[in-house]
Design goal:
There is one protein chain. Helices cover 45% and strands 14% of the residues. It has 428 residues and is an alpha/beta fold. The protein folds into 2 domains: 184 residues, D-Maltodextrin-Binding Protein, domain 2 (3-Layer(aba) Sandwich), CATH 3.40.190.10; 215 residues, Periplasmic binding protein-like II (D-Maltodextrin-Binding Protein, domain 2), CATH 3.40.190. Strands 1, 2, 3, 6, 7, 8, 9 and 10 form an 8-stranded mixed sheet that branches. A two-stranded antiparallel sheet has the order 4-5. The longest helix has 20 residues. The protein starts with a helix and ends with a helix.
């Protein structure tokens, strides 16, 4: 009898210990896609018996909080949800753990995840995308489908008014809808920042150019780069003069208030256009990937790619449970379930889901763009990446727009700076 009681007590203790350790601690920023995946946390516990808890920080200080925790050595979370641009530095410092070294990582079905190639560094997989978006054009379907507008455009330009697939169409459409001060042809982001740099990067890539060559030497001051920069200046002619001071939120506000026909931005903007509390274009917007020159419109070329996703802390004592969470939350059915709460899924099977397509018809344009592009981060995934874009590319674009330098001079000066930076850091 005593022996049986001892066994019962031991089993009870094992259950308590099991419940303590059958958990996974998540850390994230405060944002709409985090709110989306939080909706399946209870489902995770019900299905696996593992409890998921979360700590969140404002985006403005989230990265600093992560680094402070990692460097202090007092890591109290298992799964950091982070920007794709952050993980290379965390991987280099061994703060996050290679997922491919965990048993069962193959069950993640990686070939179904768009942009997954960006999650590998030095032969190891550190990052699984959850939220994916591309840079492109958000446009007003009510204007593009208006019979009077279509007839007027056909008469003026000699071809049908459709969402722009080529850079030539894009310029024509921006010019056609430029009707200040009530309506502008395009919304752009002109403040000296990474946002301004994206306007140059998109055009550079669309022309077949690149930032760095295989030896990590700057090549963006090429013919393609000069043409790309000159075209950025050309497009600002059809934007609100105030656009020279815009960043992402300003551009988003202008478009959702119905003050422009197009916005050169990324896919997340579509989630805001559908918010009836803040948007005047609900049900009147869609998305198309960034246009290319006519002669390259069918080529598979780099396109601006933005992603947030999941990693596993090297200090975690619950790596198996952490991997189970990542498998669960990025599973197609759970991505589809969470998406309406504020996310653009990473899996092709999710963005092509019929139910989700019915709710978000604009996913068709997004899926087409994703399948026909090379998803490319706005910042090279190297330690110097942020500096290349923020300290050299953005100022070069700004200097050209202000008229203080020619396109050639601005890019040559920037390329010289990047070359010196890379040489100082031992790349050559």
């Amino acid at each position: 009898m005593v022996k049986r009681k001892v066994i019962v007590v031991m089993l009870a203790c094992l259950l308590i210990v099991s419940s303590i350790f059958s958990q996974v601690k998540l850390v994230s920023e405060v944002g709409i896609h985090t709110e989306a995946w939080k909706t399946v946390m209870n489902d995770f516990q019900e299905e696996t018996g593992i409890k998921a808890t979360i700590q969140q920080f404002p985006y403005s200080n989230y990265f600093d909080q992560l680094m402070l925790t990692f460097t202090s050595g007092r890591v109290d979370f298992d799964v950091p949800y982070i920007s794709m641009l952050w993980y290379p530095a965390l991987a280099t410092a061994s703060y996050i753990y290679p997922l491919n070294k965990l048993s069962g990582y193959e069950e993640l079905n990686l070939e179904d995840i768009s942009g997954i190639d960006n999650g590998w560094q030095n032969g190891n997989l550190y990052y699984i995308p959850y939220m994916n978006e591309l840079g492109g054009i958000v446009y007003r379907t009510d204007l593009f489908n208006d019979p009077k507008e279509k007839a007027a455009f056909q008469e003026q330009y000699g071809y049908e008014l459709v969402p722009p697939k080529t850079l030539e169409q894009y310029r024509d459409i921006a010019e056609f809808f430029y009707r200040p001060p009530e309506l502008y042809g395009v919304t752009l982001m002109g403040q000296r920042s990474i946002f301004l740099a994206t306007h140059f990067l998109q055009r550079l890539w669309a022309r077949g150019g690149n930032l760095l060559d295989s030896e990590m030497k700057p090549i963006f001051n090429s013919k393609e780069g000069i043409e790309a920069l000159q075209e950025v200046g050309e497009m600002f002619k059809y934007a609100n003069p105030s656009a020279k001071t815009y960043v992402f939120q300003d551009a988003l506000t202008e478009f959702t208030q119905g003050r422009s026909a197009m916005a050169e931005i990324w896919t997340t903007a579509m989630l805001y256009t559908e918010n009836p509390e803040t948007s005047r274009v609900v049900g009147k917007a869609s998305f198309v990937g960034f246009p290319r020159p006519e002669e390259l419109k069918n080529e598979k070329l780099p396109m601006l790619y933005i992603s947030w996703g999941f990693t596993i802390s090297s200090a975690s004592k619950n790596k198996d449970q952490a991997l189970q969470w990542i498998k669960f939350v990025t599973d197609t059915k759970n991505e589809v379930k969470a998406a309406p709460y504020g996310n653009i899924p990473a899996r092709f099977s999710s963005i092509n889901d019929e139910e989700l397509r019915a709710k978000f018809p604009w996913l068709e344009g997004f899926s087409e763009a994703m399948e026909n592009s090379i998803p490319t981060p706005m910042v090279p995934l190297i330690p110097e990446g942020n500096s290349i874009i923020n300290d050299y590319i953005a100022p070069a674009v700004s200097e050209y727009l202000s008229g203080s330098k020619t396109a050639e001079r601005a890019l040559n000066d920037a390329a010289d700076g990047v070359y010196k930076l890379m040489k100082e850091h031992g790349y050559y």
